[in-house]
Amino acid sequence: MVKLDRLINILSRYGARLHGSIANRSVELHSVAVHDPIRPHAATGDVFLAVGAADLTEALALAADARATVAIARTTDSPDPHHRHTLDDAGTALLTVDPSVSWSQIASVVYGLVLEGRETESGRGPSDLFALADTISASVDGPVTIEDQLSRVMAYSTAQHETDPVRSDTILGRRMPERVRRFLDQQGIFAHLATSDAPLYIPPAPEHGLHGRTVAAVRAGRELLGSVWVSGREPLPPHRARALQEGAHTVALHLLRSRVSADLERQVESELVIELIEGSPDADAAIGKLGIPAHDLRVIALQAHAEQERNAGILLAFERATTGFGWSRRGRSTLFGNTVYTLLPAGDDPAPAYRWIADIAASLPAHIDIVAGIGGTADARDLPASRQEADECMALPPTPTRTPHCYDTAWDRILIQRLRSVASTGRLPSRDPVAQLADADRRGGTHYVPTLQAWLEAHGDPNAAARTLGVHPNTVRHRMRRMREFDYLDLDDPTKRTALLIALPLHTG
């Protein structure tokens, strides 16, 4: 199921053009019909694909017979007044798609959105995964749990007989308990799933609250997508084991369709977000397609790193950022280069942005490190500026608590960093005060440069500078008195102090 408005917006990315005055674009579409020349009046559906129709007149007549809400035709023709009158009378929408787009592409998009449009935890995918769990449960005569490759629950059957504490905890926690996962890993269960499609029986383990399981891998080709678990104290009879294996194959098909549908949504969403953060002449239209407010937005920039797993961290972060499409997420995201950018309605209070980052961090494995930055508030046309601010916040040194920087509170450090960046584009003076102080440090073994930098950053407070340097305040005072004796160093001029503060990091690297 998908709303007409969403179908129109998605197909517009493929060059579709809308014709006809549609009073209610929020109407839900539940079915698809395709023109069959052999049985032209056999199909009915909310969306009609006019495959093989000779012209728009025939396409609209066939759509009327199919009682369609929207008709799709591949043509460069536009409706004439008679066609428009027909559309208005029937209350039908017409989408014309350029013939350069194949019917197979159009059909894959339409079927993906209409038939697989309800939301699942992994994105937009089949709506009946729970119904499939019930079907498998009935065929194997036991409670069923469908899990992904990380042991997270995707669906479970309503059958409750043979339920044990582990199954209850798994469903309530949305994931297999870690202690049980470690136990099964030690028993070689996950190694078996990685290499074999054959159902495997796991004997009861009362000490872990496990009454017994039979598990089968859910696989697409060589890729493990997840697993199907059946609770039971005894091994499944051969005919039920075959039913479990066949059920796992059906689950794989559902998950593959889910992935295709989710990837379609991610692609459309990503293109729109990139368009906005780079600057769009039609920003209001792009925001409208994303379904988020056009004002009080913030850009969040996030990078994720995992040792010895190049790109794995950021890809997983992007997957988590785009989990649950449409109205179930506040933000809209893209993976641009090695950074996930998210547009988040937040307003003047950055708290929602901090919560969003915390939620992403909590959803990632513990070995993945993230760094993030939060841009200032912006409307749709100012998002490139908020994106730059998010990038600049992300590039600042981390805080002791690893709390992400936000432009609202880090603007001063960003401003200094911008000045330093501008200053570094030209040739630095070879005999400026900083260069001469550095030369004195090299010749005399003194520590004038770090002391001056700490003193300036502490606004002349010797106690704060001493804490930064890890020395006694009198040491700072002594060094500052010595530096004031240098005729090339004027610390009483505020302009020169500002210039020194910018130049010091450029010299010290």
Q: Could you name the CATH class of the largest domain?
A: Alpha Beta
Assembly type: single chain
Largest sheet: 5 strands, mixed
Briefly note the CATH topology name of the largest domain. Alpha-Beta Plaits
Helix content: 40-55%
CATH architecture of the largest domain: 2-Layer Sandwich
Protein name: PucR family transcriptional regulator
Pfam family, one: HTH_30
Characterization of the model:
With 509 residues, the chain is α+β, with helices and mostly antiparallel strands. The protein has 4 domains: 2-115, HprK N-terminal domain-like (Udp-n-acetylmuramoylalanyl-d-glutamate--2,6- Diaminopimelate Ligase, Chain: A, domain 1), CATH 3.40.1390.20; 129-258, Beta-Lactamase (2-Layer Sandwich), CATH 3.30.450; 290-423, Alpha-Beta Plaits, CATH 3.30.70; 428-508, no CATH class. Helices cover 47% and strands 17% of the residues. The protein has 19 helices and 19 strands. The protein has helices at 4-12, 56-65, 81-90, 103-114, 129-140, 165-173, 178-186, 189-195, 238-278, 283-290, 312-321, 351-363, 383-395, 407-423, 433-444, 448-457, 462-469, 473-484, 494-508; strands at 2-3, 17-19, 28-29, 32-34, 47-49, 70-74, 93-97, 119-120, 123-124, 144-148, 153-156, 200-202, 213-220, 223-231, 297-305, 332-336, 339-345, 369-374, 405-406. The strands form 5 sheets. The chain has a 5-stranded mixed β-sheet with strand order 2-7-6-5-4, with helices on both faces. Helix 13 links the parallel strand 18 (369-374) and strand 19 (405-406). Helix 9 packs antiparallel against helix 10, helix 16 packs across helix 17 (462-469) and helix 16 (448-457) packs across helix 19. It starts with a strand and ends with a helix. Residues 118-127 have low confidence and may be disordered.
